[in-house]
Amino acid sequence: MSLSQDAAEMIGLKCLAWLAGDEELLPVFMGTTGASVDDLREGAKNPEFIGAVLDFVLMDDAWVEAFCTANSLANDMPMHARAALPGGGQVNWT
Predict the structure, then answer these.
(1) Which candidate, 91, 93, 88, places its Cα nearest to that of 2?
(2) Do 45 and 9 contact (CB within 8 A), yes or no?
(3) Is the whole-model pTM more than 0.85?
(4) What does the CA dihedral 68, 66, 21, 92 come to, rounded to 10 degrees?
(5) Could you state, in order of their start, the residue ranges of all structural domains in the chain?
(6) Following CA atoms 30, 36, 41, 43 in sequence, which dihedral angle do they give, to the nearest 10 degrees?
(7) Tell me, what's a Pfam family for it (predicted)?
(8) Residues 6+ apart with CB under 8 A from 44
(9) Measured in Å, how far apart are the chain's first and last C-alpha atoms?
(10) Tens-digit pLDDT string for the chain (94 aa)
């Protein structure tokens, strides 16, 4: 499945909103990335940042499942969205 960059960004923005609403996971993301609340606001305008949000969530199957369940998405949609954003073609899972 191939997504347009616009469709991928919409999924990524949903993921960012979901992450921002998770009181346990958001501090993990912010601590791991060094991002501030202002960075989250500004990053929502940046496809590379949105890709980084998806990269983070894709690190754990439970996070992927929770995000997808909350947004009525198939569990493979974050992966497809990530592939359609800048840097997504460079992911190496080995």
Answers:
(1) 88
(2) no
(3) yes
(4) -70
(5) 5-84
(6) -70
(7) DUF3572
(8) 13, 16, 50
(9) 21
(10) 788 999 999 999 999 999 999 999 999 999 999 999 899 999 999 999 999 999 999 999 999 999 999 999 999 999 999 999 988 876 555 5
Which amino acid type is present at position 91?
A: V
Q: Supply 9's token pair.
A: 């960004």
Of 38, 34, 43, 35, whose CA–CA distance to 16 is shortest? 43
Residue 29 structure tokens: 């993301």
- Helix 47-57, helix 77-84: angle, nearest 10: 150
User: Among the residues of the chain, which ranges form H helices?
Assistant: 5-20, 25-33, 37-43, 47-57, 61-70, 77-84
